[in-house]
Write a structure and sequence with these properties.
The protein has 345 residues and is of the alpha+beta class. It contains 13 helices and 13 strands. The relative contact order is 0.16.
Length: 345
């Protein structure tokens, strides 16, 4: 019989050691109302824990086995030569919709896939992130149920959002066909929920994972560095991106730069314990990897393949062979190896 554990176990072995990813999975599955809440960029116990052990089962940093999850998702584990994980096909794509391209980070593939799924009835909601209206560029979980909401949420914020807590919002809203978009640690948490507590994920239709080397502290990077030191009003920022440097695109058209070497001091501590760059457990993984106006797309599962090809049938995506983008493929493989090496250092 499995020994049950309490939130203290999670607190002592994950949170106090700086391993918490801030994904919100523990808060999402806690069976008690308002006992486990999300505060100050992490979970906090506000009531009496009943020692059910559910929070430890879903945490991506508590006794987590990547090979176990690979076997759960793909029926096998990654081969050594599969630098960026198990996949069926790699492609490079971009949206055919100019409105989406103007708002999106790179090629608008994630937003286009979500809109296609919503309009076809495959899903009736998607968990993404949005920008806090009172704290510019602070990402918050968002449940988008319309095309306009999906486009408004497009683009990347380089600070962590506790996306999984939005699972409870989906239940409250009566949504039963959900897509989830998130970083590698969040996708791992979703897969742990699906494996160990499947009733909490019955409404999940597919996952889209984002390429992610690390996340940055919002207070350190956005407030202390960009707003206070550089004197940039965060409301004046149109977009941020990482292309060899941390780029800040202002609404005036001006572009400010921060070296990646300098941004290292703003990295969240938990990111140093993650070995997954390309969201290797997602149905589809997407990222820029040196591309301008295109999205490198890794189709990993049958679910992901069906979603992608249904979208292309509707002429919503322009697709190119990854063979024409070897530089990006090599960069993806290199970054994946670099990040995986963190687990051995």
């Amino acid at each position: 019989m499995r020994n049950k554990s309490s939130f203290d176990e999670l607190s002592n072995n994950v949170i106090s050691r700086g391993l918490c990813t801030g994904c919100g999975a523990c808060v999402a599955v806690c069976p008690l109302q308002n006992v486990l809440t999300y505060k100050h960029r992490g979970p906090k116990l506000d009531g009496v824990c009943i020692n059910c052990g559910i929070c430890t089962r879903v945490c991506p940093r508590y006794k987590s086995s990547v090979t176990e999850m690979e076997n759960f998702v793909f029926g096998r584990q990654r081969k050594i030569e599969e630098d960026f994980g198990i996949y069926k096909q790699v492609l490079v794509a971009r949206s055919t919709n100019e409105e989406i391209l103007r708002k999106s980070q790179d090629g608008g593939v994630v937003t286009t896939l979500l809109i296609s799924a919503l309009e076809s009835g495959l899903i009736n909601g998607a968990i993404t992130s949005r920008v806090d209206t009172t704290n510019p560029w602070l990402p918050l979980p968002s449940v988008a149920t319309t095309r306009d909401e999906l486009i408004a949420n497009a683009g990347t914020r380089y600070s962590q959002s506790p996306g999984l807590i939005a699972l409870k919002d989906c239940v409250k809203a009566g949504l039963d066909k959900i897509a989830f978009v998130g970083t590698p640690c969040q996708i791992l948490a979703i897969r742990r929920i699906q494996k160990f507590l499947p009733k909490y994920a019955n409404s999940l239709v597919f996952t889209i994972g984002l390429f992610c080397m690390e996340n940055f502290s919002y207070n350190d990077l956005m407030i202390s560095k960009i707003q206070n030191e550089l004197g940039i009003n965060l409301s004046d920022i149109k977009k941020t991106n990482i292309k060899g440097k941390f780029l800040i695109y202002l609404k005036t058209g001006e572009v400010k730069e921060i070296s990646l070497k300098e941004t290292k001091k703003f990295i969240r501590p938990s990111c140093q314990h993650c070995g997954d760059f390309s969201s290797e457990l997602a149905d589809i993984s997407c990222g820029g990897v040196g591309l301008d106006g295109w999205t490198y797309t890794v189709i990993r599962t049958g679910t992901g393949a069906n979603l992608f090809y249904d979208t292309t049938k509707r002429d919503l995506l322009k697709v190119e062979s990854a063979e024409n983008f070897q530089t990006s493929t090599k960069l993806l493989a290199k970054l994946s190896r670099v990040k995986r090496s963190r687990l051995n250092s």
